[in-house]
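Tip: read the tokens left to right.
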């Protein structure tokens, strides 16, 4: 079982282009702390979304991202498992680099509708979040170090993939589990290393279960993702968790059912206080 003592919630802006990203992370973190009793460590200050380039976004976010990396390293040094709630994937590579540190005995399991393997040379949108896994794997230098390599990634549920990303997936023979109704059973047959880092972008899910900024059809069902996490916990040591893309709606919207779904999915990992 993971040794989690707090929820690290990054509430700063790291390339966010929509109003619901940061409020969504805050709501999910608050919901999880109410259920588990884990306190929240807030990192960064909320800011309005901007449609800027990845370089501008990264430069603006860098001080808060360094703070995030420092908080993660403190958890590791104290013997605890970093558990981070993020607005988007645009801050995830900071956590991955701080935890995995190039360890070839760690699998990075990437649950996402997207591959996020664009680089400064291939990105068409300039969206920092769409370059996150590429940064974690050292395909471009975001300034926070390389976490791992593509050979040590397991991509689960990805279905909206650019041509350049598809080329990389084929070139590096990246292990993949598609988003179909056999995902959880196929996961049981997938080899995991002794240690696993779990990255859960909630848009890996079929639309309609939780609010999402980017909805891609033919996604994973919540019980499938939970079954995959149960399998990870049974077969590998979880060294860290990032969860992102719970999209905040208006204050008048009752999203309690969606928050319950998101928290139920990750029960196998963060259940020690009665989730």
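Filled-in amino acids:
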């Amino acid at each position: 079982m993971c040794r989690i003592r707090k929820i690290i919630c990054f509430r700063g802006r790291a390339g966010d282009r929509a109003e619901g990203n940061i409020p969504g992370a805050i709501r999910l973190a608050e919901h999880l702390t109410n259920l588990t009793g884990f306190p929240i460590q807030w990192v960064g200050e909320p800011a309005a979304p901007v449609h800027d380039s990845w370089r501008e976004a990264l430069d603006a976010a860098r001080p808060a991202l360094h703070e995030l990396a420092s908080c993660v390293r403190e958890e590791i040094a104290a013997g605890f498992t970093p558990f981070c709630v993020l607005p988007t994937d645009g801050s995830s590579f900071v956590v991955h680099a701080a935890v995995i540190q190039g360890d070839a005995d760690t699998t990075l399991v990437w649950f996402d509708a997207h591959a996020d393997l664009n680089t400064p040379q291939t990105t068409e949108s300039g969206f920092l979040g769409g370059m996150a896994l590429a940064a974690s794997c050292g395909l471009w230098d975001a300034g926070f170090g390389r976490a791992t390599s593509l050979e040590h990634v397991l991509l689960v549920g990805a279905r909206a993939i650019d041509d350049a990303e598809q080329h990389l997936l084929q070139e590096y023979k990246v292990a993949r589990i598609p988003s179909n109704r056999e995902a959880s059973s196929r996961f049981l047959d997938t080899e995991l290393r002794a240690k696993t880092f779990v990255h859960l972008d909630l848009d890996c899910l079929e639309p309609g279960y939780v609010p999402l900024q980017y909805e891609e059809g033919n996604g994973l069902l919540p019980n499938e993702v939970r079954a995959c996490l149960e399998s990870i916990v049974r077969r590998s040591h979880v060294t860290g968790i990032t969860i992102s893309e719970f999209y905040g709606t208006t204050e008048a919207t009752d999203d309690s059912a969606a928050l319950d779904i998101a928290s139920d999915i990750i029960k196998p990992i963060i259940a020690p206080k009665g989730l």
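The beta strands are 7-10, 40-43, 83-86, 106-111, 153-156, 175-177, 195-201, 237-244. The two ends are 14 Å apart (CA to CA).
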